[in-house]
Amino acid sequence: MLSFRQLVCFILSLLSFLSVFYSVGKLGVFLATPVIRQRDFRHVLLTTLLDDRGLLKATLFSLCFNSVWIVLFVIQHSAMKADVVKRFWRKLGLEMAERSVYNIGSAYCLLIMLKNWKTTQSYQLWYVDVESSPVLWWTFVSAHIVSWVVIYGGSLLMDLPELIGLKQIYYDVNDLAPPMSYKSRELRSFYGRLRHPSFVGLSVVLWITNSMSLDRLLLAIIWSSYMYLSWNTNKTDLEYQKYQLGRKKVELTNVQE
């Protein structure tokens, strides 16, 4: 029989699971959908940025407005990982719900950003017309699909149930220690510096687009910079990954024999 505390944490873990997959799905569609120009579209070159002051002001307002939601996501994504926040959940006796609450916060910050996003298609760094070429259309879409498959596969390798927050509840219900305590010291150290899979995959979904408008460029620059600055893996992590890969090759070789 679940205690009230465990029941609350279980509900939060389910909400975390649903929120993460829904918000990431929305983000995937937002980033992957090729842009089709409207008939009344008026493209303005960046070299003539100052020619139309009204359009320039509207563009700058949209960029500032979008920046608020991008920065909100970055702040939430960093602040809720702080030790002081983790200590707060431990004092409440809800440390097993910490990951779930973190995911829920990230998911809803992401959904708020997508809901309030303002496009600035008038100014573009590049535009590839995919409307008349199904091959080009599917090239861009396929690049995103493959990247998300890689990201999802990496999440499975990194213990997806633990990342979502479900595993913590299962271990607590079965009177087990937190799942992270069963991982090696090297793996815990590695996770402390890299909690998301595939830097390349995330970079592809941010930068590969048929229309690089200023709002999309802003998102790509801020999130890419955030990934680069916050994912500070080192040589020890690389050696650990090489060692684990070598072990996996030996295991697979023995299975085949």
TrEMBL record:
Membrane topology per the record?
Multi-pass membrane protein
One GO cellular component, as annotated? nuclear inner membrane
Recite the UniProt keywords alphabetically: Membrane, Transmembrane, Transmembrane helix
Q: Does the keyword Transmembrane helix apply?
A: yes
Q: Where is this gene product found?
A: Nucleus inner membrane
Q: Which domain of life is it from?
A: Eukaryota
Q: Which residues cross the membrane?
A: 55-75, 135-158
Q: Does the keyword Transmembrane helix apply?
A: yes
Q: Which InterPro entries does the protein's record reference?
A: Nurim-like
Where is this protein chiefly located? nucleus
Which family would the database say this protein is a member of?
A: Belongs to the nurim family.
User: Under which name does UniProt file this protein?
Assistant: Nuclear envelope membrane protein
